[in-house]
Amino acid sequence: MNQDYIQPDNWSIIEEGFDVERVKSSESLFSIGNGAMGQRANFEEQYSGKTFQGSYIAGIYYPDKTKVGWWKNGYPKYFAKVLNAPNWIGIDIEINGEALDLNSCTKIEKYRRELNMQEGWYNRSFTATLQNGITVEVNSRRFLSINEDEIGAIKFDITPLNQDATIIYKPYLDAGVSNEDTNWEEKFWEPLDVATDNNKGFVTAQTLKTAFKVTTYMHNSIFENDKDLQLSPLSIENEVDKTQFTYQVSVSKSIKSSIQKFGGYTVSLNHNNTLEAAKSAIEKATTIGYEQLLSDQKEAWGKIWEMSDITIKGDVKAQQGIRFNIFQLNQTYLGKDSRLNIGPKGFTGEKYGGSTYWDTEAYCIPFYMATKDQKVARNLLTYRYNQLDKAIENAEQNLGFNNGAALYPMVTMNGEECHNEWEITHEEIHRNGAIAFAIFNFYRFTGDYSYIPEKGLEVLIGIARFWHQRASYSNDKKQYVILGVTGPNEYENNINNNFYTNYIAKWCIDYTTAQLKRVAIEYPKDHKRIIEKVKLGDAEIQAWNKVASNMYFPKSEALGIYLQQDGFLDKDLVPVKDLDKAQRPINQKWSWDRVLRSPYIKQADVLQGFYFFEDHFTREELERNFDFYESFTVHESSLSPCVHSIQAAKLDKMDMAYQFYLRTSRLDLDDYNKEVEEGCHITSMAGTWMSIVEGFGGMRIKNSQLHFTPKIPKEWEAYSFKINFRNQIVTVNVSAAQSTFTVDGNQELVLNVNGKELTVAPNVVATI
Amino acid sequence: MNQDYIQPDNWSIIEEGFDVERVKSSESLFSIGNGAMGQRANFEEQYSGKTFQGSYIAGIYYPDKTKVGWWKNGYPKYFAKVLNAPNWIGIDIEINGEALDLNSCTKIEKYRRELNMQEGWYNRSFTATLQNGITVEVNSRRFLSINEDEIGAIKFDITPLNQDATIIYKPYLDAGVSNEDTNWEEKFWEPLDVATDNNKGFVTAQTLKTAFKVTTYMHNSIFENDKDLQLSPLSIENEVDKTQFTYQVSVSKSIKSSIQKFGGYTVSLNHNNTLEAAKSAIEKATTIGYEQLLSDQKEAWGKIWEMSDITIKGDVKAQQGIRFNIFQLNQTYLGKDSRLNIGPKGFTGEKYGGSTYWDTEAYCIPFYMATKDQKVARNLLTYRYNQLDKAIENAEQNLGFNNGAALYPMVTMNGEECHNEWEITHEEIHRNGAIAFAIFNFYRFTGDYSYIPEKGLEVLIGIARFWHQRASYSNDKKQYVILGVTGPNEYENNINNNFYTNYIAKWCIDYTTAQLKRVAIEYPKDHKRIIEKVKLGDAEIQAWNKVASNMYFPKSEALGIYLQQDGFLDKDLVPVKDLDKAQRPINQKWSWDRVLRSPYIKQADVLQGFYFFEDHFTREELERNFDFYESFTVHESSLSPCVHSIQAAKLDKMDMAYQFYLRTSRLDLDDYNKEVEEGCHITSMAGTWMSIVEGFGGMRIKNSQLHFTPKIPKEWEAYSFKINFRNQIVTVNVSAAQSTFTVDGNQELVLNVNGKELTVAPNVVATI
After folding, report:
1. Which domain holds residue B144?
2. Chain A residue with minimal CA distance to B419?
3. Is the residue at A263 inside a domain?
4. Does the residue A646 lie in any domain?
5. Residues in domain Glycoside hydrolase family 65 N-terminal (chains A, B) (predicted)?
6. pLDDT, tens digit (0-9, with 9 covering 90-100), for A197-211
7. Terminal-to-terminal C-alpha distance of chain B
8. Residue B82: CB partners within 8 Å, gap ≥ 6?
9. A571 and chain B: CB distance < 8 Å anywhere?
10. Between chains, do A494 and B493 touch, taking CB under 8 Å as contact?
11. What is the residue-wise DSSP string for B1-30?
């Protein structure tokens, strides 16, 4: 953890001072993205120090051949990888015959990075003295247009401070890139074509195996004191997968020279002719122009913030943290395209192949539902609907299920399983439950039932069939059991009767049965269509219900708690507080078997069930289970503290709630786990949002009504957030003294605050 | 399974007829070895068809870099591999300008392989017509000298049948070999030197990383009608890792031409100067001569058979099966060198890196104890004693134990762990128990206590310390539990309270405590030395005993059985007989999670405990547990049927015992699992021996007395075996009508047969 790394600021992420050891971490933290593409904050100019180069295009992946020590039946042969995309940001620079390379300068001063989250741009500036004695001031600004999501822009300024300078700019496109995490050190890109036309360059390449075609383009202009010199390249060097232009200018001392580079990708997912599309993108970029694009960018981010901002008064680090999380979520996924999803590292790194985990349904959907048009969350649900056939195939071909039982993959890009640890891939089956829960949650929040007869019910049926087949009858217990699973707490593997899994399995069947009934009555045509398609009869539904109604849940009557799994109380129950700090994090300090037999919990498990199904349990039950499990939870998953924070807030353990909140909101900014250089923890960022809105704000939807029980950590003066509730924008402001609620538009809204109804007239502040 | 592949014969393994699809399987079955080196039955001449080339040298290994999909803390970084050694058997042959290659001959007749187990040689003969029209009769005989274990010999005869022939012999040595199972397709050998001297060739190479130096040598002679032509090579081609000689002869039709090749290895394990040692080996081989070596070979094998043969009358396939097993065990390990052990594939393949598994202690030691001088078994025990430091290091550094707790590796070559599946490597800890049991078993059988004060007690202490630390107290059960293990049944992973593991853990502590007391009294000097060395005090022993005396064993009172693990009765208990045959073997047909949650048992687990500790349980307990567990056992481990066979025999279920016996004794010969091409199942072969001696013969040692309860399968007329019991050779002959016992030497021996004492006078047949 490094609390002094990032400067506190309400709206920007700021790093000051150059430190070679921080370059890779900052490359992650200062990443930019626009939902369609993104990139780590790699330097434009050459850099001979340690760097992790990464550019990424949403939806473009590569199936890497699986690598294992010991093959287990059921493993996928291939493994979709987030793909390092061709580099379009590169600009090699030479000043008076010497390369500008921050790793070899004799002096670097005023080094500053700023990621301006309010306006959506990234800036890097410094003054550097090269070995040849020249001192230059450099400023580079970069952004990826939210409105025109195939367009990125760079303005790179150089002002020689102590001498006149001859500057050579060598902007390039390079498809000769590879992934750091390849299994077999293979290349993933096959170059197809390199084309140039005056200041325009195009490199077309396609991914091996998946054959996604991508044209990477650039357009360069050279300026002096912001005046376009209308230069053409002095020379162009083409290689099979690269093109590099050379421009040369001479500028006097104190005169600012600049290169402006537009660049980006056009991809075969969206265009038949990616080269022509790239030409159009350049046409659009040059027509709109850099300054207008930048001004549009500020406006576009302004609109995003208008809906999704959370303000925190009196705690700039908390403010910065929550905005960083909201900013990154929006950079990663804007919800325009149901073929895309929310990768765990977004566009900030390549770790964890695949883009889609149960994180999306369990943690991200609430954020997107509440801060975006509801079609965004619907797109996320549709993503799974579109992959239902592959989930059925996965269950059938890999795992031996039948009759349309669906098991969604643990990790996926295109619906196929992308992970190969048997204890996860084959056994962490609770993921199916979160996918069903998201369907319920979407309806609960939006009130829009139409998704269920249209698409959701088929998904639910596939999932119910899976649970029915996966449970087995214990003649010993005279109940149905689910054996050999890994629950949300991945520090237990191959356990029996994980409470969370059993509970959500039962719930899935019950919920599916109820929706079948409702659809039969309200949408008879859809009901008929679906029943015929999936060949579902009453006998089968009865068989499901037999399992659901007689499901076993492990519990301890003595302790008044549910047991995370059979046998949990056999463990050596030393609470985390008594565990030697030198032993933590246990996943780094202990061998895996020791982790497994310990009582320590990686992330909310029983408590995750209490979070999803809060209304099924009493407050006393929650408190007993929370107190028991919290004492053994090490929160070594980024997804853990948010649930504990929400529950602590509910239980009026506000200090605890606040501590959990801090842990999640600045996880990356303060580099808690010393791994931010690999990329940011995108999906857990949605959990931070939940900690405030559902935790401190106490937001719930009950019977189509928005509920709040606002509380505030004593460290804060006030905080505010907005909720798009069924197309009405509700703004909530909370301070220790009072809470206020406003509703945009022209319709009143009846809220429930602290258990009492509160009618909020439009555009009038209601105070409590 | 292929029952018609190998011709039935009492003493030989015979294949008739050439089938390209059988070449790799036969290469395994006809493998030869002499304890120090061995090789698959690869053809001497070039062969362009499918082949698996393999030559192996005992004790020579390579640490391959571990390959995993997902790293877990505690995995070893390297992984000792059985190493494919330089090829010395190769002889490229050209006849009238065309290569002799069985894959391209126009006609192959009278193709026959014979592995003569009685005399210890391998012969291959055939008549082949080449594409150039010449028909030749070929006979090749090969053996690896038991007496001179650095010397191998080949005599390769060619008789042209229809034309005169010009024959070119191109014998070679080749160190440019690689393993089929490398993790990273690396080479394992670095060539050092190639030298030649008239008919002698030497290639010296060393293993990368381990730096074992090996000189591979050859000496060639060319004969016509068995007369040495005293030819020198026509030419010699040397490469960096290879030397190949060329000899040319012309022979008339019907005249036999031959090449005789001596070859083998001299290794830095045994010699400072391997090249000089190789020269000495050639000197020895040429001095003794081929015919004398072959005649010595017959005599040496005669001696081995004299002690270890089992005869079966009335069932040639059973006879052939048991002799094949005994032959292979002796080819693999002769017990001369305590640095060596019994690899699971012996010298017949390279699968499963590492040479030493708990198979050695659990299955092989009884065979070697009863059929060899007792120093052989003592060498096997010493092997583990010599690796105690590494077992302590393994427990400490990889798994977080302390205070001298030892965990022997799951798989090893040099004492370091060579396996990397957490559920096996970290959790299949019962292996420690078998190592302690072997110490007890050695004393029980030999009556030689000296090993324990000398070496064994230190091993026992390390093991007891491990169990003490590995058990934990369950506040729920108020007993000690052992969580997160894999038992002998590897179709369960990460289970709690595996009966076998808990039982042997308790036994290890009890046994160690008892030996500490005995050594203190009988060997006070050793006791003092050891206690000081390992720093063991009474308090620690008391702490051990607290665990041992309060160990939890899962059981079902209702069923009157011990439970394989907690929760076993929650499974869907469909017996194997009701399982669809199309689903088997389940490890090939099912995904791993399905295997795990099923009730099916790969190999004896609770029953393994009953096997080791038979006297701790009543016959009724055995029967109840046997009936229960046998019904769920799929025997998909080669180590399983023998234990069930022994117990079925004890329970007078002779048909079942016989079926299990058959399954184990001809596993490879009939290729039950369609995998013999990878190599033979060497360690399970000792289980076959146990099935007869301990199962049908009912041999036990109780209170220093040899007990028998002879039974005979109805399919057999009679069988016999010998036991070297404390340097007295006991011969047991069993038929349906009677059993006879004889003792060699001049001392009478009091046996216990069917519960009654029987005094056997020396050299007089005692009949019952």
Report:
1. 32-306
2. A69
3. yes
4. no
5. 14-268
6. 999 999 999 998 889
7. 39
8. B56, B61, B343, B345, B350, B352, B353, B354, B355, B413
9. yes
10. yes
11. --TTSSBP-SSEEEEES--GGGHHHHHHHT
